[in-house]
Design a protein that fits this description.
With 181 residues, the chain is α+β, with helices and mostly antiparallel strands. The chain has 2 domains: 40 residues, no CATH class; 136 residues, Nucleoside Triphosphate Pyrophosphohydrolase, CATH 3.90.79. It contains 3 helices and 12 strands. The protein has a 4-stranded mixed beta sheet with strand order 7-4-10-9. β1 and β2 form a beta hairpin. α2 packs antiparallel against α3. The chain starts with 6 loop residues before the first strand and ends with a helix. 22% of the residues are buried.
Length: 181
């Protein structure tokens, strides 16, 4: 596989923000030619597939400026510096939905956009939800929804659910349901 690697010659920081950093890397390609790579650096994130005792999926509806639209998603958020993913998952679940759970089960980690970003999302499932206290960030506004698997699948079809992490989680839930029957 070494014949596929690119060698970084120089990294130029472009922007350092609250959520992401942007850099441009000058690289030598496997064929010896030079190129540039624009890279978004991200601290990583967690996403949670919360399922109520009644078997409903807890989702959040919120406006996403990058899309200039309101979409429905599973609860998620970025990792704070030095924070363990399972702690972040518990924190984000309660902050965004007002629910908490002792039954947090790690499912998988995946890259969101490996062509230009290093964001890694750690996906968790949780059940036996208990009502806690929601505590949204000052710049966060959202609605909490509880939907059936069928309703979530319809939201994917009509593009109310429009992001990969949520579509992935809904498909996971569907496969889990199929395994029970």
């Amino acid at each position: 596989m070494d014949h596929l690697f690119e060698k970084t010659i120089k990294t130029t920081p472009i922007y350092q923000g609250k959520v992401i950093d942007l850099q441009v890397d000058d690289v030598t390609l496997p064929n010896g030619k030079k190129s540039k790579r624009e890279i978004v650096k991200h601290p990583g994130a967690v996403a949670i597939l919360p399922i109520t005792k009644e078997g409903k999926l807890v989702l959040v509806r919120q406006y996403r400026k990058a899309l200039d639209k309101v979409i429905v998603e599973i609860p998620a958020g970025k990792l704070e510096r030095g924070e363990e993913p399972d702690a972040a998952a518990r924190r984000e679940l309660e902050e965004e939905t007002g629910y908490r759970s002792e039954k947090l089960h790690y499912l998988i980690s995946f890259y969101t956009s490996p062509g230009f970003a290093d964001e890694l999302i750690h996906l968790y499932e949780c059940a036996d939800l208990e009502k806690g206290q929601g505590a949204l960030d000052a710049d966060e506004f959202l609605d909490v929804l509880e939907v059936t698997l069928e309703e979530a699948e319809q939201m994917i079809r009509d593009q109310t659910i429009y992001d990969a992490k949520t579509a992935f989680a809904v498909q996971y839930m569907k496969l889990k349901e199929v395994g029970r029957t």
